[in-house]
Amino acid sequence: MNIETTHLRREEIYQRLRAEILACQLAPGANLHEAELAERFAISKSPIRDALMRLEAERLVLVVPRKGYRVAPISVSDARDLFGLRMVLEQACAPDVAANASDADLKALDRFRSLAAWGKGDSFVDYNREFHCAVIDLSSNRRIADTGRSVIEQFDRLVVMSISTLAERNAEALIAEHAAIIDALQARDGRLAGKLLQKHIEFGVKRVLKALEQAAVIP
Fold first, then answer.
1. Is this prediction's pTM over 0.85?
2. Is residue 219 part of a domain?
3. DSSP run (H or E) holding 71
4. Minimal CA–CA distance to 68: which of 47, 37, 43?
5. Exposed, middle or buried: residue 77 (CB in 10 Å: 0-12, 13-18, 19+)?
6. Which of 71, 99, 129 marks a domain boundary?
7. How many domains does the chain contain in total?
8. Are 172 and 110 part of one and the same domain?
9. Residue 184 Cα to chain centre, angstroms
10. Sequence-ordered list of residues with C-beta below 8 angstroms from that of 61, at least 6 positions apart, any chain
11. Least confident stretch, 50-59, 130-139, 152-161, 174-183
12. How far apart are CA 46 and CA 72, in angstroms?
């Protein structure tokens, strides 16, 4: 196996584990053992260890002294911190996107006006993530875009935990809020888009934190 193939394999292991954690397929608090993961992926422990260290840096995995690793639990305090960071990043990108994104890129956001228009199944978790990533990806500031995408992706766990409490009418309201944000961006009104994103995220804070407080998660 050459160096390039080895690198790709390590990246694949990291991406697979990260996706399973974000989708709660690896449940919050679940123990992770290098040997078991190495056997599962039919690979040595080294790429597993590298992946776990990267996930620890993202605060998705915790190191447990003398025991190995475990998936980071979902906590209300961490959710608040994530929402705060997301608020800063998404509001910062709105004026930039409204001013600098191409007409074609802004028009392409129309695919998020409804689940039907999105056309990739009815997964609200996927739809919600991809809408917010699509907007922040249009930022001309690549550091904001890259950091923002990483933060938004980490919300998958929070959405999965709270989706059972999301009534259909609330899902429709969220999609309508997305449509209003799209309208503002397409009108090149960055200030309005920023305000709408702020209100949208504030609603998410209330909904998600309420759901987490009802679940058995860490305060």
1. no
2. no
3. strand 68-71
4. 37
5. exposed
6. 71
7. 2
8. yes
9. 23
10. 21, 32, 52, 55, 69, 70, 71, 72
11. 152-161
12. 21
Q: Which of 43-47, 152-156, 210-214 has the lowest mean pLDDT?
A: 210-214
Which residues, at least 6 apart from 188, have a Cβ–Cβ distance to it below 8 Å?
98, 99
User: Mind listing the pLDDT tens digit for each residue in 189-205?
Assistant: 999 999 999 999 998 88
Average pLDDT over residues 24-38: 92
Provide the residue range defining the domain that includes 27.
3-71
How far is residue 159's CA from residue 188's CA, in Å, rounded to a whole number?
Answer: 29
Last residue of a domain, one of 53, 71, 89: 71
Q: Work out the mean pLDDT of the chain and round it to a whole number.
A: 87
> Are 23 and 153 spatial neighbours (Cβ–Cβ below 8 Å)?
no
* Cα–Cα dist 166/187, whole Å: 30
Say if residue 32 is exposed, middle or buried (CB neighbours under 10 Å; 0-12, 13-18, 19+). buried
Q: Is residue 74 left, alpha or beta, with left meaning phi > 0 and alpha meaning psi from -120 to 50? A: beta
Give the pLDDT confidence of 33-43 residue by residue, as tens digits.
Answer: 999 999 999 88
CA distance linking residue 216 with residue 219, whole number of Å: 9
Residue 61 and residue 97 in one domain:
no
> 169 and 62, same structural domain?
no
d(CA 192, CA 171): 22
Tell me which of 35 and 120 has the higher pLDDT: 35
When pLDDT is averaged across residues 16-37 and rounded to a whole number, the result is: 92
| Any domain includes 115 | yes
Structure tokens at 193: 């888009």
